[in-house]
Amino acid sequence: MKTDSKILVIQTAFIGDAILASSILETIRKCLPKAQIHLLVRKGNHSLYSDHPFLAKLHVWDKENGKYKNLRRILSSVRAEKYDLVLNLQRFGATGLLTALSGAKEKIGFSKNPFSFFFTKKFDHQIGDGTHEIERNHQLVKSFTQVKPEKPKLYPSQNELKKVEQLQREKYITLSPTSVWFTKQWSENKWSSLIDAIPSSYKVYLLGSPADRKACEKIIENTLHRNVQVLAGKLSLLESAAIMAKAEMNYCNDSAPMHLASAMNAPTTAIFCSTVPAFGFGPLSDNSYVIETEEELTCRPCGLHGHKACPKGHFKCSMTISIRQALKPIEKG
Q1: Is 210 within 8 Å of 233 (Cβ atoms)?
Q2: Are residues 193 and 275 in the same domain?
Q3: Within this chain, do residues 118 and 234 fall inside the same structural domain, yes or no?
């Protein structure tokens, strides 16, 4: 690979996947500092990279309005760039076709992609053996970079850092209690009990999107802790990342906020309910903990992405995680 190659990285899946893709960007940048790196993400995730310090170009695919019309527009833009290399981190047809028709000199992706027979090189993508997603992605660049991947990293702007600065004047802990999937989130009453058990010397911030605000407000309705504030819907993704960076601890589910914390190398306690770390999406911060049920449940894991309700009706993978377990990381600190 030429040191000054023009490289496109494709990851148009959900927020967590887009954050983990930054590992590839960091690795390429470290090993090929003169390379021109471009990134393709879905609309909604583009704010993570809008002011990224070493991305030369950001392609944004609107999947919600005119999905395939916009894909054709993206393809035209991609072909005009005449890339030396396209790295496709996804395993689905649309981006596989985009890669195949990109006109790039070299096309690398995963063999599960239905259009992978057009790729120059392709690699297996196996979930469940404990390999982390950043290591699976690293297969695509290992031959021309380095043995191990760099950790994911995000870069909040000075304005984003300044916006949360006043919230960081006392010791605080953040909680990101929601998830797109019901079975991936610790139950509301558990979050409420955890807040009550957190020492009063800590401020507690609840993070999330505008859609998460009601759930966060419900969690604090029955709490006795007097120093709690709901920030869900008030901060952007990178502002949330910025506030996580200086927290004493960040509590989250197996969901996007966990990856935000990883990308800031922020202290993380990740609560796994229906899913398991062996899938390869666990926390990557130097100071990180995984909390999961201590009971042997034959029904766990019940799926890679979770469900809208517990298939067995008992939701023991969440209900049997104790407050004692969750508090241990704070006590260690």
Answers
A1: yes
A2: yes
A3: no
**Alpha carbon of residue 199 to chain centroid:** 29
Full domain range(s) for residue 177: 158-332
Closest CA to 9 of 138, 135, 117, 118: 138
Output the six-digit token pair for 244: 């996580």
Residue 112 shares a structural domain with residue 211? no
Spatial strand order of the sheet with 55-61 comes to 55-61, 36-42, 6-10, 85-88, 106-110, 121-123
Of the candidates 191, 203, 309, the one whose C-alpha atom is nearest the C-alpha of residue 246 is 203
pLDDT digits (tens, 9 = 90+) for 55-76: 999 999 999 999 989 999 999 9
- The pTM of this model reads 0.95
C-alpha 74/C-alpha 119 separation (Å) is 19
Residues 291-326: pLDDT tens digits? 999 999 999 999 988 899 999 999 999 999 999 999
**Residues of 136-158 as b/e, b for ≥16 C-beta within 10 angstroms?**
bbbbbbeebbeeebbbbbbbbee
How many domains in the chain? Answer: 2
Q: 149 lies in a domain?
A: no
Question: Which residues make beta-bridge pairs with 172?
Answer: 203
Q: Are 227 and 200 in contact (CB under 8 A)?
A: yes
What backbone phi and psi angles, to 5 degrees, belong to 173?
-130, 140
> Counting Cβ atoms within 10 Å, is residue 270 exposed (0-12), middle (13-18) or buried (19+)?
buried
Residue 69 and residue 176 share a domain: no
